[in-house]
C-alpha cells in the first residue's frame, strides 16, 4: 500500500496538507474522515491515529499525526522545491518561527470565529453570547495585525520572496473565518494582495478545490440530535 492521507477538507490543516501534496505531484490515496459525523472518534481510525485527529498519514507500516510533522515529512521524502522549507538556516528558521506561533494564535482565533459565528448557532442550534463572539473577533483582528506587522511586513510572502509552508498554513487558517462570513481581507489591502499571490502560487483551481467545502459550510443543514451529542463534548471549549 502506498501513501494514504486521512483528511477532511473542512479542517484547515487538512487543507494545507492536501494542497501541498497536490501541488507537488505527490501520489496519495485520499481517506476521507468526516469530522461532523464524528468519524475521527471511531475505533478504526484510532488504529491509524490514537490521537483521533486529522490529518493523519499512513505510509506502508509508518503512521504519522500532526499537520506540521506531516508537511515536513512529505517535503523531505518527496524532495519538494526548496522554497517550501528552505535549506538555508535562517530562512528555515523563519518558517519554523511562524509554524510555532500560529498554533496558539491564528489557529485558535480562526477556529473559534468559525464555530461561534456560524457552527454553534446555525449547525448546533446553540446561541453564543454576543460578548463572547465580540471578544473572539477582537482577538482575531489582533492576530491578523500581528500576521501583517510581524510576519508579512513588506515582503511578498510571510518569510520572504517565495511561498513557503508558512503561507500555506496561514491561508488555510484564514479561510475558516471567511467561510463563516467574516470580512478578513476587505479592510486589509496588504493581506488581500498576499492572498492573491498565494492563490496564484498554488494555482487558483487547486485553491478553490481545497476550500470548496469550507466556503459552502453556510449551506449546511442543522445537525441531527445524534450528531449534536457526538460533537458537543469536543467543541465546547471553542465557546470560551
Automatic annotation (TrEMBL):
Residues 88-222 form the GST C-terminal domain. It catalyses: RX + glutathione = an S-substituted glutathione + a halide anion + H(+). Residues 1-82 form the GST N-terminal domain. Keywords: Cytoplasm, Transferase. The keyword Cytoplasm applies. Signal peptide: none annotated. One of its GO terms (cellular component) is cytoplasm. It is found in: Cytoplasm. The keyword Cytoplasm applies. InterPro entries: Glutathione-S-Trfase_C-like, Glutathione-S-Trfase_C_sf, Glutathione_S-Trfase, Glutathione_S-Trfase_N, GST_C, GST_C_Theta, GST_N_Theta, GST_Theta. This is glutathione transferase. The gene is LOC105862783.
